[in-house]
Amino acid sequence: MGKGVAYSTTEAAHLLNVRAESMSVLAGDPGHFARRFEAEGGSPRGFAERRFFAAYLAEILNEAVESGCTELVEDEVVRASRAGEGWSLGFADGSTAQTDALVVAVGNQEPDTLPAFEGIGPRFVRNPWGDASFGAYFFLLTGFHGTHVLTGVVILVSTAIRLAGNRSTKDGVEMAGLYWHFVDLVWVFIFTLFYLL
User: Fold this and answer.
1) What is the Cα 109 distance to its own chain's centre?
2) Model pTM score
3) Which of 83, 108, 162, 175 gives 167 a disulfide partner, CB atoms 3.0 to 4.6 angstroms apart?
4) How would you list the strands of the sheet with 86-91, edge to edge?
């Protein structure tokens, strides 16, 4: 079974955003996960690593499979309907299964547009973390930076020509150098924002 984006991380710095005392998957035993976390040196009021919680979930699932009360099916569910007190599931391969409960885990979906912004126009950005927005920001900022670089090259060439003809002062050379350093600083910001974060 896949762990999903949230729990497939291997980074120790990636922590749960809920305290261990509130993360038990057993409804009849709310302190189950907290005790497990405490046995590994954690605190019930602490925040466990996501990879630790993933291992905990895998252990619970494996116990359920081994006990015979749970069966893992790797297929795509294309239909779900009520069947008495439970559910009837239809799979893509045409098979069916009966279950006591149904959980639909859809993951982190793109946010809906706030009613106040309905019909605001095509330039409104619904999801600033989406691919389209990232591409727009990336090309806008790198294009703008490219304009700064081109302007800097023109200034430096112009300053060099003026200096060769003894028509430039030391202040002119210093101003050209300061502008080029400004272009460097802008690139540090863009590189950090788009390539490192």
Assistant:
1) 11
2) 0.52
3) 162
4) 77-83, 86-91, 96-99
Per the listing, tokens 């590189």 go with 191
How high does pLDDT run on average in the chain? 87
| Confidence (pLDDT) at 166 | 87
Could you identify the residue written with the tokens 């009520």? 82
CA distance readout (Å), 60 to 36, 38, 70, 191, 197 = 12, 17, 11, 43, 35
Structure tokens belonging to residue 73: 């099916």
Dihedral Cα 9, 15, 21, 26, nearest 10 deg: -10
Phi, psi of 128 (to 5 degrees): -70, -10
pLDDT of residue 69: 84
How far is 80 from 102, CA to CA, in rounded Å? 9
Q: At CA 117, angle to CA 116 and CA 122, rounded to 5?
A: 165
Cα separation values, 68 from 16, 19, 54, 63, 72, Å: 30, 31, 21, 9, 10
Query: What residue segments make up the domains of the chain, in order of their start?
Result: 1-71, 73-109, 131-196
Mean pLDDT by 10 residues, the chain (197 residues): 78 92 93 95 95 93 90 88 93 91 76 78 74 81 90 92 88 90 89 80
